[in-house]
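Fold sample X.
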Amino acid sequence: MKIALPDAAGRLSDYHLTGTPLPETRLPQDAARVVYSAAHVVADPFAAADPSGPACLDWERTMAFRRHLHGLGLGIAEAMDTAQRGMGLDWPTALNLIRRTRAELPEARVVNGVGTDQLDPAEARSLDDVRRAYMDQLDAVQALDARVILMASRALARVATGPADYLRIYGELLAACDHPVVLHWLGEMFDPALAGYWGAQGFDEALDTVADLIETHAAKIDGVKISLLDKDKEIALRRRLPEGVRMYTGDDFNYPELIAGDAQGFSHALLGIFDPLAPAAARAVDLLGQGDVAGFHRVLDPTVPLARLIFRAPTPFYKTGVVFLAWLNGFQEHFVMVNGAQAQRPLPYFTEAFRQADACGLLRDPDLAVARMRRLLALYGVA
């Protein structure tokens, strides 16, 4: 099978598909690692609302993808940045999404994003404003008996004056949590508004603050997801975690090494890249649980070039690559995104993502993927 793909100058050359679609493997409940996929949402292409307005979702396709993830035995990180939270997905729609997932998949392992995105950072005047915004979302999610991941807050980054302010706000939030939660340390490469989070400009000071917070409130913390795209920083925090607190890798560049671990420990996973890589993630971690470390790396290592492409700078637009692959693989009938985000990457990005997905067996129906890639090329004027 082949398709003519353009280079950056528009010159066409035949690309011959070589990948073999990965078989779907269900991850057992007692898997070697806890694995969450942060899941994307499917926009309603027929909605009359402008892309810049409130999000309009195709609920059936959005929920079908969550059923797909659950069918593979993966956990779901709901209403997170992969779902375009803070980049098109507003809080009312996010809460509706959380509610639907809780109702339709009551047995699934799900953590749900709680933040302050209903509060415009420019309108935040005090820490109390931030606390109220967090508490409103926390109360709404816990009323569903749903588990929580505490997301980073742009408003808190704006009003906090130092580490003590972060320790105060997070301490009050954790005291109000009904069940142990996941903390999320999101780097400014994902959201520039989070620069200086934890009240520190340097990593070492921020690390001390986070480690202090976790040590003080360990009983209320299931784990921490760190998304800094730096394996050494993740390992540094991992080695300071109290017993019983999990490290969830959020490193979409170095996840195989971090999940496999070393002599001093390993990371579980809560990753946006495990949305398009879900079959590979399930297969690889299943092999790891069987003691087949080489097999784990044989499945997961070849996916890293694709992940690095999808999450390349400007990193916030990685969601475009995630949804593109969902469309190629037939999980939705269109490549339209909330907030018009399908326009946030250039054509060479899509052609390379197509090649890389084929190379690591992530085009589950190559005929369909080729047909849809040709439709996209025609939209760009490629004959």
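Fold sample Y, listed below.
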Amino acid sequence: MSRQSQHRLKDIARELGVSTSTVSRALSNHPHVSEETKERVKQAVDKAGYQLNAMASSLRKSKSNIIGLIVPRISMYFQSAVITAIQNELQKCDYNLMIFQSNESPVLEKQLVSVLHALRVEGLIVSTTLYTEDFSPFDVFSKANVPLVFYDRVPIGYSAHKIKGDDYQGAYKSTLHLLEQGCRRIAHISGPLSCSLYSERYAGYQDALKKYKVALNESLVFFHELTHENALKTCQVLFAEEPYPDAFFTSNDTTAIAVMEYANRLKLSIPEDLKLAGYSNDPRVQIVQPSITSVEQFPYEMGEQAARLIMDLVRQNVKPGRSFISLTTPIELIKRESSKALASTVNY
């Protein structure tokens, strides 16, 4: 403990009329200190603005009670929901969460892996970047027997514990639904195929077309980062000349909303002229008019499973030598107005 911290502890002890050691034990939740004294110390500490150096303490004990988390972007709806679930679950176990974002950069991701390893986190949970192809930087955790769990965007061809959504079924059901509404020129806008979930969604899209004996039209398929700006650029290409697509299946809801915006510019009516299905069930898809059909991924459930798995690994509830665990969370196609059949009586 630094001299400054010791000085502050002495000040608090003098103010309360107790020893410095009593203040220190109260801060450590020692069982021999009364609850009344602990509360008095807590109030005095809050008042003084003193912060216990938890990291320094953890380094002395070689136990941090901290789980690291690397996500592509915290601002993404899906990721923010997962983060909330992980944090809530870890708090039940008296563990804290240290969150970093890779900003879709494999270089930064590699650096963050090194930082978290140096900080001696007791486990690491990761959703990789769109472009991560070399997973060897994560070997430092497995070699040190520190638990590592990937979720959502999981490695292809790298042995690890993984939790993923059923992306193939989500895409298959979405595309099949559009086909059932009579659509045949179904455009597909997705992320880079280097990312596991987008390759699976593309496979689901293709297999649904095969089921209806609709030939794959590669001019209707685009792969890029799924931003609003990129979606509008793709729409410029897809709507440059007729025949236009009669439907879109997009791999996120930000893109679906951008397609709706572009269609409105062209005075195209949804769902009369164009049907639309997105992915992730972002709350925004219920607010726009018409509301957008989307795939619910149950991010909270995925976050809970990731947290429970990492804690089972940390507490060694999973027997050493067991093969890597792979879990798949469910999806549900939420049908809304954007894909409604004109002459249908189906309730959306």
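Sample Y note: Residues 184 and 278 are 17 Å apart (CA to CA).
Also: The chain has 13 helices and twelve strands.
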